[in-house]
């Protein structure tokens, strides 16, 4: 089945608001480990069924050296041995915030974060969850389609961040 045409382009319709979304994205990237952020964005996008964001964040994670096995097993992170306890706490939180109507952002999920993240880091993880959920809703409602060529970039020359 062919994809629907783009319904709306918020970057053109509401450029000031879109610019602020991009600015917040930049701030989050300054405060959350890049590799962990890719996984969190991908996990929320899987839950929300956002094809655009799943494709984009998979490409970004692969570009930054994330092993294929960790990406393909992300949907089964609770059963996989490929993720650290720190990552597991962050995954549980991103899932709870993504499904907040079901979970209410539970005390056990929040408390699990405290063993691995300080208050500032928890705040930025929460903003990351809010942000990717907003992007998912924008992409899904506008019927945006990911174009790998549009986001092509040279291989990263920056040193990879320490694993989570």
Write the layout of secondary structure elements.
Layout: H1 10-13, H2 15-31, H3 34-48, H4 51-63, H5 68-72, H6 85-98, H7 100-103, H8 107-114, H9 119-142
Helix pairs in contact: 2-9, 3-4, 3-6, 3-9, 6-8, 6-9
Domain Carboxymuconolactone decarboxylase-like: 15-96
Protein name: Carboxymuconolactone decarboxylase family protein
Describe the structure.
By secondary structure, the chain is mostly helical. Helix content is 63%, strand content 0%. It has helices at residues 10-13, 15-31, 34-48, 51-63, 68-72, 85-98, 100-103, 107-114, 119-142. Helix 2 runs antiparallel to helix 9. It is globular. The termini are far apart. Mean pLDDT is 91; it is low at 156-164.
Structure described in brief:
63% of the residues lie in helices and 0% in strands. It is mainly α. The chain has one domain: AhpD-like (Up-down Bundle), CATH 1.20.1290.
């Amino acid at each position: 089945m062919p994809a629907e045409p783009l319904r709306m382009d918020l970057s053109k319709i509401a450029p000031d608001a879109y610019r602020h979304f991009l600015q917040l994205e930049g701030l989050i990237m300054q405060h959350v480990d890049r590799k962990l952020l890719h996984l969190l964005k991908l996990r929320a996008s899987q839950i929300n069924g956002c094809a655009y964001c799943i494709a984009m964040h998979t490409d970004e994670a692969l570009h930054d050296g994330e092993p294929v096995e960790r990406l393909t097993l992300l949907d089964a992170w609770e059963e996989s041995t490929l993720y650290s306890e720190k990552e597991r706490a962050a995954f549980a939180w991103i899932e709870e915030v993504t499904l907040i109507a079901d979970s209410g952002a539970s005390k056990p999920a929040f408390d699990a974060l405290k063993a691995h993240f300080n208050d500032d880091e928890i705040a930025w993880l929460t903003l990351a969850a809010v942000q990717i959920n907003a992007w998912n809703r924008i992409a899904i409602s506008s019927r945006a389609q990911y174009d790998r060529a549009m986001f092509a970039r040279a291989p990263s020359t920056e040193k990879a961040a320490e694993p989570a």
